[in-house]
Amino acid sequence: MQVREITSDGREQWNQFVAWHKEGDLLQSVEWGDLKQASGGWQPIRLAVEEGGQIVGAISILKRKLPKMKKCIFYAPRGPVCDFSNRKVLSTLIDAVKERARREGAILLKIDPPVLLENQDVAKALIEMGFVQSADGDGFGGVQPRCVMQLNLTPSLEDVLAACKPKWRYNIRLAERKGVTVRSDCTKDDLRIFYNILLETATRDKFLVRDISYYEKMWDMLVPQGYMKLFLTEYEGKPIAGAISYLFGDKCWYTYGASSNQYRNVMPNHLMQWRMIEWAKESGCVWYDFRGVSQNREQSSDDHLSGLNRFKEGFGAKFVEYIGEFDLPLSPAWYWAWTVGKPKISAFLKLLRRRNKKRGASGDL
Predict the structure, then answer these.
(1) String of b and e for 23-47 (b: at least 16 CB within 10 Å)?
(2) In the chain, what are the domains?
(3) Tens digit of pLDDT for each residue in 102-125?
C-alpha cells in the first residue's frame, strides 16, 4: 500500500474511482479542484492510496493560504473517498495528509464526508484519529449541507412519478397543459439568461450570488465532461425559470435554481424538476439529490426554508442526515486561534464599532 500524489498523470483513474465509489462526489473530482483554482484562492492537492496498482482511497484537498502569515487551511469537500471501515486505508490517507500539512504549514484539515449519521462507528474512528466534531448549525450552517433530500431513482419513472404527492403530479400536468416547456439543450450563451433570473431570485429571497464569471468557468470545466447541465423553463417564449444540475457517476445533484416573479401560477418549477429527474434517470443515476434542507424541517421559523423543504418532499424525496463536519487540528495553538480566538476577536471588534457609532465616533478600528 502506497500513497501517490495525482498531478497530470492519473487524473482519469482518479475520476473513475471517485465517480463510482458509493460515497464519491463531484466535489472530489479533478475538475472541481481545477475550478476552485481557476476561481482564485484555492490550490488542489490530490492524494491517493494505491494497492496493487489500483486506487483504494482518495482525498482531494483544497489549500487556502491565510493572509499575512505562512499558514494555510486544508479543506476536503465531501472527502475523503474510501471504505471508512478499512482503518488501514483511512489511516494511511490521513497520515499522508499530516505529512503534507507539515510541509505546507496547514493549521487544520476540515472534512465533511457523505457518511450517514447512523454510521457512528465512522465518527468514532475519526475522533480516535484526532478529529474533533465541528459545529455546523441546523443542517445549513456547514460549508456543505449536513441535511439533504434524496430521491431514489432505482424504480421505474412511472413508479417515481406515482410516489410524488398528488398535488405535485397535478402541478406537473398543469404546467404541461399551460404550454410550459423545459429546454435542456442550452449553450453557454444561455448562462446570461439563467444568471439574470438568478439575480431576480436572489433579490426576492435575499441571498448572495457569485459573479457570472464563476458560472462561466464552471461551464468551461464541467460541461465538456458531461458533469453539468443547464435547464431553462419557458412560457409563451419567455424564460421564467432555470436550474443547474451536476452529474457524476451514478449520482445527480440539483445545485442552483432560479425563478422569475412572473407566471408562478403556471408551475414552472414543478415541471422543470420533473424534467431534470427524467434526465438523471435516463443518464443512469440511482439517486437524485435535492441538496440542503433544515435539520428541524417541521419547526423552521423561516417561511422560505419551510417552503423549500415541502417542495423537495413533494417529489417523494427522503430526508438524509450526514455525520457532519470534522476538523483535524494540525497545529493546536493555531487551531485554537482559528476556532476560538478569531471569532472572539471579531465579536469584540464589532461590539466596539457599534459603541463608537452610537457615540458619534468616526473612523475604523
Answers:
(1) bbbbbbbbbbbbbbeeeeebebbbb
(2) 2-143+323-352 (3.40.630.30), 147-321 (3.40.630.30)
(3) 999 999 999 999 999 999 999 999
